[in-house]
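Final report, closing paragraph on structural work. Over the funding period we assembled a curated collection of sequence-structure pairs, and we close with a single example.
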Amino acid sequence: MIEIRKIEMSDYEKSAEMIKTTIMTSFDNLYSELLKEAICKKYDLENFILSAKEIEMWIATEDNKIVWIHNPAQADAYAEAFLVEIGGIN
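Its predicted structure, as stored:
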């Protein structure tokens, strides 16, 4: 069953990694490695923690895996939800 809830500190690392994985996969044929790495830098754990403390983020979990992240502050600039392979990230 999918559970939707506010993000918690214990979710930060997995969430940041999920976003970076999604960026690298989604932009694979669109941008150079250097540009993708620069975009991902915004989601380093330290930067992600700062953002998560200021912005009300939501996640969806299924079987203890994060399968969706919603950041309303970036909904216009980036995809509203970041999805990875079926099953999410452990």
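The longest strand covers residues 65-70. The helical segments are 12-26, 33-41, 45-54. We thank the funder for supporting this effort.
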